[in-house]
Amino acid sequence: MRLFKVGPSPFVKKNNSVKILLEHMILVLLALCVVGAVFCGYRVLILLLISLVSAFVFEFLFNLVVLDKKGLDDDLSSIVTAIMFTLISGANTPLYMPVIAMFVAIIIVKMLFGGFAKNIFNPAGSGAVVSISLFGAVASTWLTAGISGKFAENPLNNIATGNFANFEIYDFLFGKAGTIVGAVCLIAVLAGGLYLIIMGVIDFKIPLMALLSFAAVAFLLNGFDFNIMLCYLIGSPVIFVSFFMLTDYTTSPNSFLGQLIYCLIFGISAYFLVKYNVLYSGSVLLALIFANAFTPLLDRVIRPRYFGEGVKYGQ
Amino acid sequence: MAFANIRGVFIRGSRKALRNAKIAEIKTSANFCVPLKYGMASESKPLVSVGENVKKGSVIASPIDNSSAFIYSPVCGNVVAVDKRINSNGQESIVIEIEPSTSKASLYFKPIEEQTKSNLFGRLVECGSVDTWGKRLPSYKKYLSANIRKAQTLIVKLYDSDGFVYSNCFIAKNYAKEVALGALLYLKISNCDEVVFTVFDEQDKIVSQLKNELLNIGADLTKIRFYRISRKYPLDEEHLLAKIITRKTVRIEHNVEDFGVFVESAQTCLNFYNAVYKNEPTISSFYTISGNTFKNAGVVDVLNGTKALDIFSEFKIKNKEKFSSFALGGAMAGIAQVSFEAELPISQTSLVSFEDKIYSELPCINCGKCTKVCPTRLEPMALDTYAEEKDFGRAKKCGAEACINCGLCSYVCPAKRNLAQRISDMKDNIIMGRTM
Ligand code: SF4
Ligand code: SF4
Fold first, then answer.
1. Is residue B357 part of a domain?
2. Which of B107, B127, B143 is the last residue of a domain?
3. Which of A147, A293, B281, B334 has the least CB density, counted as fewest CB within 10 Å?
């Protein structure tokens, strides 16, 4: 007789898995890479390749040397990290930069914190922040920038210097802007975000709250000027970051109140970091990492009130 | 605040097939094995010995305390064994094995002369009706005198625990008059102010049918309410029902009856009706047979102690290769069985079987989906960590005892973690630690 295979209830499970979620994410990110390559040239694909290879190599080496096991982890997270790094760097980023960034992202931020889903900071974001801060002022030239004096050609510098003239939203829709690879086409970013929301991968609340708080601060502190607010919102990579990086499960709080505070921290700090152009395209990422740092605290302090909590006997 | 009715997931299951289910007849060939203990109830005392002849409906076990019930023989036959075995709930229990004979003789109660409260209560104790959810205690336990003083609301569930179970709904649809009369009987013995019929599946049909029947009986309609529930949970959902319907928060460690809320189901109403109007003891319960390994789904009136193999001879398995196991008690919170010899007691209402699917657990990715879905607002992933660290103190502080074992957290978890299982084990540990 065939033996019964017995598992714990529930016997039906929802048709999702970590793999499916990450696959949706990778699909969207790769599509954005292709869009980036179309507008910024083939160099994007070389950056992507180097990031992917170095991510795999570092993961392999760490597993071999520290964890004493052969092969790569079978989760897809390092692929996400590598693609993500490509998307948040400028198209002219030097080709050795992904190696440095992946070292920081995979080894320091991810593996040393205990591996997949144990990290506190966003790996790709921290990698980019470290690599940009290492090279200071040079980093601004990594973004594709022109000289014709349009706002879109060097939006981050223009924001910092208060030069909001010649702002045309059209430039940001079709890759005429000097910004990170992932954000060259606003339509693609929004479409990707929408896809992830519809597929249930990300929660629409986090990007919504983050963008609202960022926009609100920009609106209030610039004399209620709608145009300047739009320059801030679209000129900096904040939309890309709030859709694809802020929503990361591991590094964002779970409770609604926690998410609200997290988004406020992100929105407000991102505004000031962008305004004073602290790290060029890394300013928003720095705000992201700053907000990430609060997540463990927020998750610990803000807990849902469970059924019957505080009720002595019955009420 | 709308509380629990916004949480949870809606599991479709095989509702379409079940909606048109006809009651199936099963031929029983194997011996009947009646367990004397099931769930939280205590073990009844056997009154028969090996070799004795029993009739359908003759008493074979009697209660020893307030949480055990009278048990009646489901068939005519000979007692072939009275011994300790493991019942289909995984507990050790005395099981009475009866070999059925061809005789059709039956032994039922004498009619009740006058429907006074004490007579009715006596009949409820006598009839052996058992709750089919949660703790699976005998139905009369709730109405023991001490609790009745504050009686307020009687809730009658006309729906089932998940999308793969349809028994209560089936009974409400096909035995509307019996359910209405049974509910009124419970109302009489509990002194409640109102009856709330909660409906989920096929709401309109059930509500209109039941209203008609209640009008025909001449019931006081001001005392009767219908409530369309938006989510259903398996197992200990009385507390959530009490919160949704009466706005009373009763901690999970306490019984809702102590706060004036009584929960019955279509099945227990039917049992009481049969005991009072037809003088029949409770010897059977309606089982839903469903799940994707079966060719067809259906509802069966199963006699107490029928073996599962009799069900499988009527309901065929689609693909033998893919069959892995079956479970009693629904898809979400059921108990997996290890052999076709498992007996079906009256305190369960479903036998479900699903195709073999292997899930491997991954580490938690902190996605928060489990927290969002938990009907009692726990944090399953935190409790899961405490369970693995055996840190029961902290788990208790985080409300581990409030878990109703509904399984929704395991259902949604993308890392396929067996959260519900570990949390409920831990909960049992905590409760045991307290009572010892
Ligand atoms: S923790 Fe308990 S009550 Fe909450 S979803 Fe999981 S099984 Fe259900
Ligand atoms: S649903 Fe699973 S993966 Fe997500 S937080 Fe809960 S336990 Fe972790």
1. no
2. B107
3. A147
Residue-level pLDDT at B325: 86
Assigned domain for B321 exists: no
Structure-model confidence comparison of residues B201 and A246, the more confident one:
A246
Tell me, yes or no, whether B243 lies in a domain: yes
Report the CATH number that the domain containing residue B146 is assigned in CATH: 3.40.50.11540
pLDDT tier at B8 (50, 70, 90 boundaries)? Answer: low
Residues 303-362 of B with CB under 8 A from A: 323-325, 327, 331-339, 352, 354, 356-357, 359, 362
Does one domain contain both B130 and B102? no
Segment among A212-221, B164-173, B207-216, B247-256 with least mean pLDDT: B247-256
According to DSSP, the β-strands at B92-100 and B32-35 are antiparallel
Residue B185 and residue B217 share a domain: yes
Q: What pLDDT, on a 0 to 100 scale, did the predictor assign at position B69? A: 92
DSSP state, residue B141: G
Residues B243 and B125 in one domain: yes
- Say yes or no: B209 and B236 in one domain: yes
- Boundary-marking domain end, from B107, B128, B157: B107
User: Is B245 found in the same domain as B374?
Assistant: no
Q: What is the residue range of B46's domain?
A: 31-107
CB contact under 8 A, A254 and B364: no
Residues B123 and B263 in one domain: yes
Nearest by Cα to B326 from B272, B287, B365: B287
Dihedral angle sign, alpha carbons of residues A114, A118, A122, A123: positive
For chain A, give the secondary structure using H, E and C: CCCCCCCCCCCCCCCCCHHHHHHHHHHHHHHHHHHHHHHHCCHHHHHHHHHHHHHHHHHHHHHHHCCCCCCCCCCCHHHHHHHHHHHHCCCCCCCCHHHHHHHHHHHHHHHHHCCCCCCCCCHHHHHHHHHHHHHHHHHHHHCCCCCCCCHHHCHHHHHHHCCCCCCCHHHHHCCCCCCCHHHCCHHHHHHHHHHHHHCCCCCCHHHHHHHHHHHHHHHHHCCCCHHHHHHHHHHCCHHHHHHHCCCCCCCCCCCHHHHHHHHHHHHHHHHHHHHCCCCHHHHHHHHHHHHHCCHHHHHHHCCCCCCCCCCCCEC
pLDDT, one tens digit per residue, over B68-120 is: 999 999 999 999 999 999 988 888 999 999 999 888 888 888 888 888 888 99
Residue showing tokens 């609301």: B153
User: Which of A2, A259, A306, A315 should be substituted to probe chain B, the one whose Cβ sees the most B Cβ atoms within 10 Å?
Assistant: A306
Q: Are B262 and B154 in contact (CB under 8 A)?
A: yes
Q: pLDDT for B337-371, tens place per residue?
A: 888 889 999 999 999 998 877 788 888 988 889 99
Of A6, A14, A115, nearest to B336 by CB-CB distance is A6
Answer yes or no: is pLDDT of A145 > 60: no
- When divided into structural domains, chain B yields a total of 3
Percent of the residues in chain A that have a pLDDT greater than 70, as a whole number = 95
> Given this model, what pLDDT does residue A147 score?
52
Strands B350-355 and B284-290: parallel
